Amino acid sequence: MAEIGIVGLGRMGANIARRLMRAGHRCIVWDRDDAAIAAVVAGGASGAADLAGLVAALAAPRAVWVMLPHGAPTEQAIAELGDLLSPGDVAIDGGNTHWKDDIRRAAALRAKGLHYLDIGTSGGVWGLERGYCLMIGGEAEPVARLAPIFAALAPGRGGIPATPRREGRAPNVEEGWLHCGGHGAGHLVKMVHNGIEYGMMQALAEGLDLLRAADSKDLPEEHRIAVDIADVAEVWRRGSVVTSWLLDLTAAALAEDPALAKYSGTVGDSGEGRWTVQQAVETAVSAPVLTAALFARFASRDEGRFAGKALSAMRHGFGGHLEPKKG
Amino acid sequence: MAEIGIVGLGRMGANIARRLMRAGHRCIVWDRDDAAIAAVVAGGASGAADLAGLVAALAAPRAVWVMLPHGAPTEQAIAELGDLLSPGDVAIDGGNTHWKDDIRRAAALRAKGLHYLDIGTSGGVWGLERGYCLMIGGEAEPVARLAPIFAALAPGRGGIPATPRREGRAPNVEEGWLHCGGHGAGHLVKMVHNGIEYGMMQALAEGLDLLRAADSKDLPEEHRIAVDIADVAEVWRRGSVVTSWLLDLTAAALAEDPALAKYSGTVGDSGEGRWTVQQAVETAVSAPVLTAALFARFASRDEGRFAGKALSAMRHGFGGHLEPKKG
Amino acid sequence: MAEIGIVGLGRMGANIARRLMRAGHRCIVWDRDDAAIAAVVAGGASGAADLAGLVAALAAPRAVWVMLPHGAPTEQAIAELGDLLSPGDVAIDGGNTHWKDDIRRAAALRAKGLHYLDIGTSGGVWGLERGYCLMIGGEAEPVARLAPIFAALAPGRGGIPATPRREGRAPNVEEGWLHCGGHGAGHLVKMVHNGIEYGMMQALAEGLDLLRAADSKDLPEEHRIAVDIADVAEVWRRGSVVTSWLLDLTAAALAEDPALAKYSGTVGDSGEGRWTVQQAVETAVSAPVLTAALFARFASRDEGRFAGKALSAMRHGFGGHLEPKKG
Amino acid sequence: MAEIGIVGLGRMGANIARRLMRAGHRCIVWDRDDAAIAAVVAGGASGAADLAGLVAALAAPRAVWVMLPHGAPTEQAIAELGDLLSPGDVAIDGGNTHWKDDIRRAAALRAKGLHYLDIGTSGGVWGLERGYCLMIGGEAEPVARLAPIFAALAPGRGGIPATPRREGRAPNVEEGWLHCGGHGAGHLVKMVHNGIEYGMMQALAEGLDLLRAADSKDLPEEHRIAVDIADVAEVWRRGSVVTSWLLDLTAAALAEDPALAKYSGTVGDSGEGRWTVQQAVETAVSAPVLTAALFARFASRDEGRFAGKALSAMRHGFGGHLEPKKG
Asked: What are the UniProt keywords, alphabetically (chains A, B, C, D) (predicted)?
């Protein structure tokens, strides 16, 4: 059995520790919130008093998995690990970091004889039970050393049919973890994964919106069609081309409330959707769907509607139209 | 001097009559609203009691310009003219009609020996003074016969520099009226014109929105840039690549109120923007800008935000995110 | 056991017959191609000499499933069935028809005492083994009567986990067939399904293209990242948010050839992707992702590149740029 | 009369010098290409042997306008000027630089007592005759000092009608030059200008493409409409809503050759179109039109068509479609 340090015990970090311990691995954990530590220690982990304590509690060669909000918290933790770890140890960023930052950090750690792995971790709140899809960037040696850890976190083959013609390829890929390439490759693949996720989500959302609008009172009576959107989402789960986990989740939400009334209709976005569009711009790749998905979220939060006002001002200017002010 | 009947005395129809009368042409006018007739008669037109009376007051070969809201009102007026006019007469639809309807109507009128012209008329509330850009579809003979009418309505050369290398091309084009082609060609060209108009408007609106957001409180202090958007629009009117009439109108609106506070931010759309997208779909032409411009207007009016709710439901499903309800 | 007539024995029609016969149902089949009939008869069906013969071979109340290319072939077959069938019989269009055509046809058949069902059928070449997702529009009575047929064609529950909170809802939905609503509802739901399919496919394609481009020779050496796209698609099948049948198919294609060299890069489209965009325009729903996906296919086939030439002409005009002609 | 140093005598720099000299200003010029210097000296400028010589030839407080390709050449010239200039002097970047770089540079120069202005310069090859639209960022003092220079470069009021309600606003804006705000504001405004330019260009290009396709041989004969696109562009120049300089240029190109045969259809892009999209992403502004315009250019250059191949592979997977390889 292996041991690993885990820094950051939010929902993701805590569940990663739990899944590892279920598989028999030993976890030394730390979080700035003592209650978070206590909750994971109750599940069998050893708690550390601080980062230095966590490092001290691990036997060399050490592995420390940082699972913190992206930006300053992660940056600082990796920098501190750079001072605390010893040559041959490996610092892991399992959170959401831009791959260019990974390349920069890896070079800084390499100068101290340390390894660095960037791991895109997909699975969300379901990962504890379903397993995490792991997209790993960095040197081959620490990846090989940590294979038991990755195997424990990944979903495994489960009931998913094998893809034909994969003979001769690394079997761990089919278990749900992949050494994608050099530094940054893990987070690059995770970034693109999230971009695709945005696009697929928006495709589903637009389709459901079309079904809703098909019964609009503005349509001629003979062309209004009412469908039960919850049932539609459910039937598509069987044998259709759009079967997907996102559809499963959508069907579950619609089964609870077809009007989705508890949601506001404004939608947030995380860094990776934005980075994906910036990647498209930087590499001159046309990515209209991934971008439209991001912009739909921006538009959902546009309270000031200045662009719309500018359009109305132009229409007023040339046509005398004055859009009605809302009551 | 020529004479013409004008049916429909809204802002467009009344101003068309006025511009023709300024040029010395004779107008017989009718509208279902007596006050509208009286206003144009006060400017020198002859009023008719009904459509039959208007037709009777014209000498053959007659020309009757219908300037009514698109759809049923225009359809009915053209049908009635089909019964009232005599062979060799010409019925004109100067409004906003889908070009496929023009082709259908022209065939019906042709069977009765009547001509039909579809005329896309651009110029809006400014047309009376600035002149109307006329895009004409139909047979050559009635177009030639009505050239004096078109010349009076069109803006003329004005101060606009001539385009090089147009030697040998019809001079009327440079005066602002064009026989575009057969039936439907006038409204097709006007439809595409309006599609482009949507795209250009949205391009300007997005640009202004970017300038507004460049001073957002969400940005790091050192990267916030405040600009006076009214002055920016004004300076672009001189020597920049985006000089355009739409920019002139935008600059005027921003000079009045840089916040454009009298506009709601929700934006309507007319048939032609939609038809343009449908034309793109039918002819397999990629038209992402024209379509994005239309969808931005749809989104500005989306009160129910069902698509956004669906996105939030999916995010909640896989990540436990719950978007904040608006207060 | 039930019996049904099947008209049109292409890949879809023939496999539908086979799947029904496997479940013990009796099929009377016809196709204009005798060899197609013979192939299905070899599997146990009864062949008819023509449409009238097929109708005559069925006991009342009859059900005839038409599975022909959309447009004229289907239109004609339904019209002929309108003459051949008897009151209480049901004509089924299982192909790809616009829902407005369904509404029109249903009214015409109803006047003769006949039923009509529009059935969106998803499943493609995999349907024989995997089952077909059936989206059904029309009257309740013939739907209830044909439930055994639909149950045989649908995939059934399989290994797919049940959606929580569906207690009290019709169980057949979870087996993969849904009575969506009145006439046209089946094909409307199938149309939107295909629109979503286009969007999801394009999201995946753009993501893979970004991974390809991440190793572009145009990038600075330190920012080039090479990943094995076939392995990435495979790992995403386990535990990631984008797990989907389309991803399964993509992983299989990439496992065979990561360069996808046997495909040209030009992509066709069927009616339903276009109809979905037209539906969005008609119902004023912003659908940027579904539309971008369609336009990407149009653009992939744009040999003349006239829009690009127009852009270059403008750039040449204001900036003196002359885009290089391709050799 | 004022004097100014000009570094970089490509088309833009040389014409700026010429336009200034026409207005009576004195120009000291330098370029790494002696022939470029000689050509401008022949028009009345004084040539310098190197950057130090150029600085030495100017009287304090000096102004040096750098007009070089963006990136390293400009960066290096500004850095050298930082060493050569004296407190109170001003270094000007009139090229295309990202506004964040301006903020960085200005801080570095300020530490040496130097001023820095970022000037977005629009006008292209037409600027010499038509004047340049100047968008200026930086401190107020050097802007005021250089007002005669800006007035000479700007187009002036010309025949363009005044915008109503601008009373009390700075008159120079109506002459075509604007002090937009602090450091970076000039290039920010120019960046957004170029983004709008991309959007407007694409709107026009898509519209023309729709007109081209309206006569496609794939359409039913009765729905084919042939129009003369060169005449359409010309007539839109008079009285239509889309009148614009870009339309003027388009009409000129189409008058020369309606097929635009000398252009390849692949379209390049410059940094500012990309930066505009990145700005939208960073400031959470939905900018679908500006982005679609950029992506259309990317797509026009996509030789490998990997995204299209991925779509075809999926279609093949679920439907058995095999897209035809191009011959």
From this structure: Gluconate utilization, Oxidoreductase
